[in-house]
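task queued by scheduler; priority normal; single chain, no ligands, no partner chains; default sampling; output format set to structure tokens
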Amino acid sequence: MKSIFSILFMTFISISIHAQSQVELLLQDAKQFNAAFLKGDFDKYVDMTIPSVIEIAGGKEIMVTNAKASYEMVTKSGLAYESIEPLKPSKFMFAGRDLQSILPQTIITKIGKTKISQKVYFLASSSDEGKTWTFLNLEPYDTASIKTYVPAYTGDIEIPTAEQPELIEDK
């Protein structure tokens, strides 16, 4: 009886450590993805985008060009991205062979002297059981349309609505 308890306890600890390391790896990759965006390294940014989205966009080269153009359009209008901070992801779920999670992130932007904070949600997806992660900003999608761009998405993880921007500083 004692050995059964020990085996169950060790199994539980092993599962907990594995889940914890998946969260740490997801957050680490999210920080790299965010840093690439903030630095304007759109090659890296697109490399860390969910592959099916890149394919539907017409390939990496086209997606890099479009990402640069969108970023330049937004920044030329006076908006500056200050930071993007990943928060604790939702539960992990398998969608076919992919492990998926919803990753909330806080984006801080600045327009003139005004700073704004907004919580947005990204789909995080891993095809190697959580060792590496790719991402997609879910703001323009709903549960039905996301399946067009990420066919593996099952809808088992609810996509939260992006929160309204919040004024955090106005000098």
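post-processing summary
- The beta strands are 79-86, 93-95, 98-111, 114-126, 134-137, 166-170.
- Residues 2-34+79-170 form one domain.
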